[in-house]
Amino acid sequence: MELYIHFPFCRSKCRYCDFNSYAGVDAGTVFSYFSALKKEIRMASEQFGRAKVTSAYLGGGTPNLLDKEKIASVCEELRRDFDLTNLKEFTIECNPESMDEEKLETYRRCGIDRISIGVQSLDDRNLKSVGRIHDSKRAMESLRLARKFFDNVSCDVMIGLPYDDPELVRSELLTLAPQVEHMSVYQLTLEEGTPLAARVKEGRTLLPDDDEVAELMDEAIGILRGEGFERYEISNFAREGRRSVHNFGYWTREEYLGFGAGAASLVKTSDGISPLEKELRFSSPKDIHAYIGGVNCVDSFDAIPRMDFEVLGQKEIDYEEIMLGLRTADGVDKRKLQGRIPPVYMRFFKDMGDRLALNDEGMEKMNGVLTAIL
Questions:
Q1: I need a labelling partner for 276 at 20 to 30 A (CA). Which of 56, 70, 76, 267 fits?
Q2: Angle (deg, nearest 10), helices 27-48 and 68-81
Q3: Would you give the DSSP letter of residue 236?
Q4: What whole-number distance in Å separates Cα of residue 185 and Cα of residue 149?
Q5: Hey, is 316 helix, strand or coil?
Q6: pLDDT by residue for the chain (374 residues), tens digit each?
Q7: What does the alpha-carbon distance between residue 72 and residue 194 come to, in Å, rounded to a whole number?
Q8: Sheet containing 349-351: order of strands
Q9: Positive or negative CA dihedral for 250, 111, 156, 15?
């Protein structure tokens, strides 16, 4: 089982962000949130019998914006309520502007062994245009500081920002590569209702077009492979042995519990009779106050008010195994794809014996490929 803990607090909201995060939350609400969060974790432990955990992930929002004692208290709660003896990876997300040595030392002492830093760009014009509040100098300082405490450092980079061109992307990745073991390289997506989407619509911000973004992504893939990184998922690159255990668990559909406002869970169940299992997927309310109230008014994990509740049967499970598996370098069992792939689409695949995976061209055209086979 994997655990995800959500901290929906930020110093300011980036212009592209539609994640469940909030800026300017008062101290009283933060205190109440942590109380509810730890109660939810305790109730989950009671329901799932101190389950064995393979990975844990503290995400947000900006977890490192919070006092180090608050993060330590959640880590302590996890260790008290779940079996972490076989934990393979324990990650915390951090933003450069909120990092310091005392916090990092505390995280290490709490058993966190991996840090993921939201760099996004090393070009100050790009950072300013999308509302990031750190600059490139601070980003590099945060990476060097992280390496004093962690030997497994990841960073996020965005492709398709206003001032991106192949030379800039090449320079950024060559600068970042020696500092990290893992890199997530995402194409900027304009989400409806965000300030950046409005600015682009009004012509106040110009972005590279789709062909230019594809060229930038090709440049990024080539650079990172040349620097010793494997593209093990459509947007994720890792040095040997440094794949993200937690994220890969999502793509291979491992069971997970999400704690906090808006956090999702996937729970696998069986009636003990049928050879087929069913799965339950659900999430908590996104609104912080609704989440706090929902947790505080019940005495068991399964009584917490939930959103987006789904019961997945074998057909839905098979569909997701194909859709998510084809995002990864490991691909999908050939038997699941038998009879599904039109001959004209076979050029997008590579044969790996008993499995099929998408090649680079296939990953670039993933939406069309999935539409054709699902």
A1: 56
A2: 10
A3: E
A4: 24
A5: helix
A6: 999 999 999 999 899 988 889 998 999 999 999 999 999 999 999 999 889 999 999 999 999 999 999 999 999 999 999 999 999 999 999 999 999 999 999 999 999 999 999 999 999 999 999 999 999 999 999 999 999 999 999 999 999 999 999 999 999 999 999 999 999 999 999 999 999 999 999 999 999 999 999 999 999 999 999 999 999 999 999 999 999 999 999 999 999 999 999 999 999 876 544 455 679 999 999 999 999 999 999 999 999 999 999 999 888 998 999 999 999 999 999 999 998 999 999 999 999 999 999 999 999 999 999 999 98
A7: 33
A8: 332-333, 355-358, 349-351
A9: positive
In this structure, the number of other CB atoms found within 10 A of the CB of residue 361 comes to: 12
C-alpha torsion sign, points 309, 313, 317, 318:
negative
Can you tell me whether residue 21 is helix, strand or coil? coil
**Token couple for 297:** 């008014």
What CA–CA distance (Å, rounded) separates 139 from 146?
11
SS3 289: helix
Q: What three-state secondary structure class fits 55? A: strand
Provide DSSP, 67-117. Answer: -HHHHHHHHHHHHHHSB-TT--EEEEEE-GGG--HHHHHHHHHTT--EEEE
- Please report, as a single letter, which amino acid is at residue 110: C
Cross-strand partners of 2: 55, 256
**Selection from 351, 363, 360 nearest residue 327 by Cα:** 363
| 126 closest CA partner among 96, 158, 173 | 158
Measure the CA–CA gap between 95 and 63, rounded to whole angstroms: 8
Decide: 128 and 93 in contact? Cβ < 8 Å.
no
Categorise residue 132: left if φ over 0, alpha if ψ from -120 to 50, beta otherwise. beta
CB within 8 Å of 70: residues ≥ 6 apart: 30, 34
Cα 47 to Cα 49: distance, rounded to the nearest angstrom: 6
Report the distance separating Cα 97 and Cα 105, nearest Å: 17
Amino acid at 270: S
DSSP string, 327-364: TBTT-EEHHHHTTTS-GGGGGGEEE-SSEEEE-HHHHH
